[in-house]
Amino acid sequence: MPTIDHLPVIEPESESTRRNTKLVVQRTVALAIVAVKGETGDHAMGQALIRQFDAAGFFTPRERAFMDDPDPSDRDRTNFAWRYEGVHVMLWALGISPELERPDHICDVPFIANTLRELGTDGLMRRAKLRPQKELLDAADLIYRYDWAAVNARLKGEEPPAGLDKGVVYEWHYALNWLIGYMDQDWDDISTDT
């Protein structure tokens, strides 16, 4: 894996934002619902999931616009379908998934679907145990470096190193930056600077 000596470290624990468990659970549910609609394009199913998970208040403005659109563009559907990767990161952060492996393959969508179907919003909240901030920061720092390597390869016209999946890396970077409160940005405005 290529590295760069002058890539700065992310903020220390004392300067990071600690999200509360309820907010992370709500973000997880919202991401899962927008991803399902992105994948299937099924507007009615999306609305049913909002009711099933009592999630009407969980969405950002951009997500709400997507969920309200009965016929979103293919580009929007693709972009929102990628949010399964954010769900994967959130389930790890909540202690539901045991590890955050290397970002070299897409996440296990059936595991996500089964977990959320089985637990629902309330069950997810009861089972969630948000990982220590240090773990979240370590994961954010590592993905920041992976993303730098993937972007560097793209700029050189090369494939991402070590089999990294650049889409997965980007989505994990996005989710982890939200988890640690990078630059105090809202979900719709998260930066993934490298």
User: What share of residues is helical?
Assistant: 55-70%
Helices and strands, in N-to-C order? HHHHHHHH
**Helix count from the secondary structure assignment:** 8
> How many strand elements?
0
For the biggest sheet, the summary is: none
Parts with pLDDT < 50 across at least 5 consecutive residues: none
What is the fold's blueprint, element by element?
Layout: H1 21-40, H2 43-52, H3 61-68, H4 74-81, H5 84-93, H6 109-127, H7 133-155, H8 166-179
Helix pairs in contact: 1-2, 1-4, 1-5, 1-6, 5-8, 7-8
Task: Describe it.
With 194 residues, this protein is mainly α. It has helices at 21-40, 43-52, 61-68, 74-81, 84-93, 109-127, 133-155, 166-179. Helix 1 (21-40) runs antiparallel to helix 2 and helix 1 runs antiparallel to helix 6 (109-127). The two termini are 15 Å apart. 35% of the residues are buried. The mean pLDDT is 95.
Features:
DUF4272; 8 helices; mainly alpha; 194 residues
Sum this structure up briefly.
By secondary structure, the chain is an all-alpha fold. The protein has eight helices and no strands.
